[in-house]
Amino acid sequence: MINVTSQYKPSLSGAFMACGVLYALCSPSTRQEEIFYAFDTTTGQKCHLSILLDKMLETLQGINYCPSDHKLYVYNDGYLINYDFSFLTLKCRLPRPPGKRPSGAQAPPKADKPNKPSRPGDPRAKHQ
């Protein structure tokens, strides 16, 4: 199955891939870029973000993430700007539905509750 995003490419100022996730950027001003959208290519889930990046000049020529040094490299009107990045789990991910069992499969047995120690004279005490 191929997962497809609904983002319209001409409206983006750039995009990059990191850890199987497509991140999209737009320019809210001439001196900032915003990472505003994430699309997980494995699950097809999308998330709206707001991560602002300062830039030197108006035009963004390219953006790439390098997983070996955890940096985002931005080419901006002759300047190379790099940002240190740490990725966390997206909080807007939807919970996954419980897995389906094949027909005829039974649920695993529940663990027995441990017996509580009994006191002398307790009617619940087992006699051996």
From TrEMBL:
Limits of the Olfactomedin-like domain: 1-89
InterPro entries: Olfac-like_dom, Olfactomedin-like_domain
GO BP annotations, alphabetical order: signal transduction
GO CC entries: extracellular space
Subcellular locations according to the entry: Secreted
Pfam families per record: OLF (PF02191)
Region of interest (Disordered), ranges: 97-128
Residue ranges with Basic and acidic residues bias: 110-128
Keywords from the named record: Secreted
PANTHER family: OLFACTOMEDIN 5, OLFACTOMEDIN-RELATED
The protein's name: Olfactomedin-4
Lineage, broadest ranks: Eukaryota, Metazoa, Chordata, Craniata, Vertebrata
